[in-house]
Write a structure and sequence with these properties.
The complex is a heterodimer of chains A (544) and B (161). Chain A is α/β, with parallel strands linked by helices. Chain A has 19 helices and 19 strands. Chain A has a domain at 259-296 and 303-543: 2-Layer Sandwich (Dihydrodipicolinate Reductase, domain 2), CATH 3.30.360.10. The radius of gyration of chain A is 31 Å and the shape is globular. Chain B is mainly α and 161 residues long. Chain B has one domain (24-160). Chain B has helices at residues 9-35, 42-46, 53-60, 63-86, 90-107, 129-142, 152-160. In chain B, helix 1 (9-35) packs antiparallel against helix 4 (63-86), helix 1 (9-35) crosses helix 6 (129-142) and helix 5 packs antiparallel against helix 6 (129-142). The two termini of chain B are 17 Å apart. The chains are: A alpha/beta (544), B mainly alpha (161). Chains A and B meet through helix 1, helix 3, helix 4, strand 15 and helix 17 of A and helix 1, helix 2, helix 3, helix 4 and helix 7 of B.
Chain lengths: 544, 161
């Protein structure tokens, strides 16, 4: 007999309190002891039963609530459809691309297209070795092969041109793509366009070159992926639109955040009318570091020998003597860039335009100043603009500073609910909502908790969430997802463009969206520079 | 185990009550996750801080791994909770419960210097309710009651006698 069993018998003795009974137990047939043991087990069942009944009741109540909310909202719980057109791989279907401008953004776009610089691969490999959390290289290499050849490179700084050539035949490429045959450098982009070995171009120059290159590329029949802002000035906008429309090339403006899953879900929420009348939309930019304020590195090899300064200045606002600062930190001057308006307001506006299809506002009133980065720049580092949309009964406010990082998000304020959009979506009912008054009264909807939350990449939409889930949803994530896989929005945005070249259709940020974005951003800049309210005249097609 | 302490009377019932309550808690946590098609451990893993955050982030970063972790959590909690209430494999269940709770605790420990990664309803410094429940499970493991109240005695009869 094991010690366990002895203990067991002893305990029974104490429980019954009669030694005689214990003796009887010992005499009893094994079946009798077994029955007693079984009763000891069965004694636990009421606890399980109580839990089961309580859990069942709670689940039934929760399900009723959840269903009531989902029925009321009519939103699907699904993630956006996966765009999974297979890229055909035969060399005959290969698209030859040229890159014009290989600075920070140009390199990022070309890398997403499948051409990383070998130095970038090495740096990511080192990062992955020293930090297990850093999966950027694996995620990058998992992207599909877009079946491209980088055949042409144009940059006015010799080092950058060489870096782009290095990227064009890098041995490590995503999606198992074959090693490229190497790009040719052109000193003028027009030579690249005339050469004929390029089917499409990526334009990632400073803003003051976007319009002329886009027009020339369209006239040469080359498809265009152009970085925002679409143009530096208002006057350049219509000629670009006309050239693109007349040529019929596929034009994609580089607002890669169009590919965010959350934006598609937010659009669905808005279109279902869940928010009720939206009278105010607030979008913001907050950064707090010199890099974010465009104080970019000046490369030590940069000098009048390695930089084609004369060509750089064509189409600029003014001509000035050679300046490394102006070449490498061009966003700090209206001569080359568009300030916060074209750089960051453009992303925010485009997101709101994607979700609400707002188009061009009737008027814009902007203000701001150079309050922190007094480094010789002429673009403001603090900038606010209020756009009026009387036809839509709403105001769109953009508010930015480059000297405080306090995040404020993007909020759509409706009479029935407010929606916050980041990499996730969170909708909270308004306590004074008309539409939800009955549901709030019946305690089906709690205005203190989100009506629905959406976390991209996970399991879709959730209604009636717990406080913890709500908190996680509000934090947002850095990546977007397709079919549960993390993917770069740049890659998706390039694929979106290439798919229209191969299979037809319109890119998601086509020339019409580009037109709206360009005019809207120029209205803000014009209002700031003129110090007054400006309006868009749709008949004259002019800012007045 | 060579010796298993005997509990009697009020001590026994107090220990059984503790076992039932923790069993109830874990079982309902499991059932709630199983019945919510949108539940996932991704948020917890992605936001984890402290010594195991690298591992947790790695688990969350792949859909296959995440599915496995979700499944283990849902069914682990459910089965451990049910086993503790019913007194089936009580010692093994309490030990596994302790392991799970240790993993939860280390996922966002209230250590000085670790930023609070989830809202809490109280104030915690190093010790939080997860840690207390973890130690309570160790106590239950050391003082098993599944034979006195539960099916362990019935199920082990064939083997022991």
């Amino acid at each position: 007999m094991s010690e366990d069993t002895r203990d067991h018998d002893h305990e029974e003795q104490e429980e019954t309190g009669t030694p005689a009974a214990s003796g009887a137990d010992a005499q009893e047939k094994p079946g009798g002891v077994g029955r007693r043991d079984l009763f000891k087990g069965l004694a636990t069942l009421p606890v399980l039963g109580a839990l089961g009944a309580a859990a069942w009741g709670k689940k039934a109540a929760d399900d009723t609530k959840r269903q009531a909310i989902i029925d009321e909202l009519g939103v699907s719980g699904d993630a956006p459809a996966i765009i999974d057109r297979l890229t055909s791989r035969p060399p005959s279907d290969r698209i030859n691309i040229g890159v014009i401008g290989f600075g920070g953004e140009g390199e990022a776009v070309v890398r997403a297209a499948g051409f990383p610089r070998p130095e970038w691969i090495d740096a990511r490999r080192d990062a992955q070795r020293t930090n297990a959390r850093d999966r950027r290289l694996d995620e990058y290499l998992a992207h599909g092969d877009l079946n491209l050849e980088l055949t042409g490179v144009c940059d006015l700084f010799d080092n950058r041109a060489q870096w782009a050539i290095d990227a064009s035949n890098c041995e490590t490429r995503p999606g198992g793509a074959p090693v490229g045959r190497g790009a040719t450098r052109y000193r003028r982009y027009t030579d690249m366009l005339e050469d004929g070995d390029v089917d499409a171009v990526i334009i990632a120059t400073p803003d003051h070159w976007h319009a002329q290159i886009s027009i020339d590329a369209a006239n040469a029949g080359k498809h265009i992926y152009c970085e925002k802002a679409m143009t530096r000035t208002e006057e350049e906008v219509l000629p670009v639109v006309e050239a693109v429309k007349q040529s019929g090339v596929k034009f994609q403006l580089g607002h890669q955040n169009r590919q965010l899953e959350s934006h598609e879900k937010a659009r669905e929420v808005y279109e279902k009318g869940i928010l009720g009348p939206v009278t105010l939309v607030e979008t913001t930019t907050n950064r707090n570091d010199p890099w974010g304020a465009w104080v970019w590195d000046i490369h030590p090899d940069g000098n009048p020998e390695t930089i084609d300064w004369a060509q750089f200045q064509e189409h600029a606002g003014h001509e000035v003597p050679f300046s490394l600062e102006r070449f490498f930190r061009w966003r700090c001057w209206f001569d080359y860039g568009t300030g916060l308006g074209g750089d960051l307001l453009s992303h925010e506006y485009d997101a709101v335009n994607q979700i609400m299809r707002l188009g061009i506002p009737k008027s814009a009133t902007a203000s701001g100043g150079i309050y922190f980065f007094k480094d010789g720049r002429d673009v403001p580092d603090t900038f606010q603009v209020a756009y009026e949309y009387p036809d839509r009964d709403l105001t769109l406010v953009y508010s930015a500073t480059l000297a405080s990082g306090r995040g404020r998000g993007k909020v759509f304020m409706g009479h029935d609910a407010a929606m916050e959009v980041g990499s996730g979506v969170r909708v909270v009912a308004e306590p004074q909502s008309t539409r939800f008054a009955d549901l709030i009264e019946q305690e089906v909807v709690d205005p203190d908790l989100p009506l629905l939350t959406y976390r991209p990449g996970f399991k879709g939409l959730d209604a009636v969430t717990t406080a913890t889930e709500e908190y996680f949803a509000s934090r947002g994530l850095l990546f977007t997802y397709r079919g549960g896989q993390r993917v770069s929005t740049h890659w998706l945005h390039i694929k979106d463009w290439l798919d229209t070249i191969r299979f037809g259709g319109e890119p998601s940020c086509n020339i019409d969206r580009g037109f709206e974005e360009a005019i809207t951003c120029h209205m803000a800049t014009a209002s700031y520079q003129l110090g007054r309210k400006v309006e868009w005249d749709p008949v004259q097609q002019k800012i007045i | 185990m060579s010796t298993t302490p005997t509990l009697t009377g009020a001590r026994l019932w107090a220990m059984v009550a503790l076992r039932m309550l923790i069993g109830w808690h874990l079982l309902y946590e499991g059932l709630a996750k199983l019945s919510n098609p949108y539940w996932t451990s991704a948020g917890f893993l992605a936001d984890s801080q402290g010594p195991l955050s690298g591992l947790y982030l790695w688990l969350a970063s792949d859909p296959g791994r995440l599915t496995a972790v979700d499944w283990l959590n849902q069914w682990g909690l459910t089965l451990i909770g049910a086993a503790m209430i019913l007194g089936i494999g009580t010692r093994f269940a309490t030990l596994m419960g302790a392991v799970l709770l240790a993993l939860y605790y280390l996922g966002s420990p209230p250590f000085p210097g670790v930023e609070i990664s989830a809202p809490t309803e109280g104030s915690y410094l190093i010790v939080n309710k997860t840690l207390i429940e973890f130690v309570a499970l160790l106590v239950l493991w050391l003082f098993p009651t599944g034979r006195q109240v539960g099916f362990d005695g019935y199920l082990s009869r064939g083997g022991d006698r």
